[in-house]
Amino acid sequence: MDITITSKKSKDLTPAEITTMNNSRIKLWGKDAGVNFKQEDAKGEFIFIKNNNKIVAFGMIKPVKVILEKENFTILGIGRGMAIEKGKEYGRLLNAARIYHIKKTGKTAVAFTGRNNIAFFKKSGFKIKKNGIRKFRYLNPKTKELVYDNDGEMVYYEGKDLFVTKLLASKENAITDTDFW
Ligand SMILES: CC(C)(COP(=O)(O)OP(=O)(O)OC[C@H]1O[C@@H](n2cnc3c(N)ncnc32)[C@H](O)[C@@H]1OP(=O)(O)O)[C@@H](O)C(=O)NCCC(=O)NCCS
């Protein structure tokens, strides 16, 4: 075993790393699942779990600006998570690295996922709010439309900003500057 955990900014991703991530996505979700990470996650930081120098899991964290009841927050949006080889602890290592990073910032981190991943996130240290995606609206800057998605669990790790506590206590929704990540 020779596990390493590294991270780098989106702009520094190599063509080989991008190909590895997109091939894994396409294998799982089909030919339209490729992502232009440098564009869509321009401010993102990517985490790679490697075993013997081969990428076995990857994920991303990016700042997301949110307004809730006129209060401004910058939370951490977590996404793109995948274990290329499943059931070997690589996903949990990825989430441990995420939590390590999240704790250092003191900010709240939020991801959206499907019901089938709830157990995995709980086991690796995150909390869940069922259907929590319904508390978010993405403000499209071009159309000024408030975009929402009814279908998704909120996965979170709350920071010193107490963002989730405030969100769940509020009758209002959180307005984000970033489309569901
Ligand atoms: C979800 C995913 C990242 C999990 O990674 P993994 O490396 O297979 O998970 P691990 O081996 O680290 O598992 C850690 C624990 O979670 C459990 N677990 C993992 N996936 C699970 C699932 N789908 N349902 C229930 N439990 C799960 C494991 O059994 C293990 O539990 P234990 O503590 O009892 O041993 C991986 O299945 C994956 O890449 N899925 C496709 C992409 C995806 O859905 N990503 C999440 C997007 S939000």
* Category from helices, strands and their pairing: alpha+beta
Rg of Cα set: 16 Å
Uncertain parts: none
Instruction: State the order of secondary-structure elements, H for helix, E for strand.
Output: EHHEEEHEHEEEEHE
How many individual domains?
1
Please report which band the strand proportion falls in: under 5%, 5-15%, 15-25%, 25-35%, 35-45% or over 45%. Answer: 35-45%
| Largest sheet properties | 10 strands, mixed
CATH architecture: 3-Layer(aba) Sandwich
Count of β-strands: 10
How many H/I helical runs?
5
State the end-to-end distance. Answer: 32 Å
Could you tell me the CATH topology label: Aminopeptidase
> Judging from the principal axes of the Cα atoms, what is the shape?
globular
Bound molecules: coenzyme A
Task: Give me the CATH superfamily.
Answer: Gcn5-related N-acetyltransferase (GNAT)
Query: What's the mean pLDDT score?
Result: 97
* The CATH top-level class label: Alpha Beta
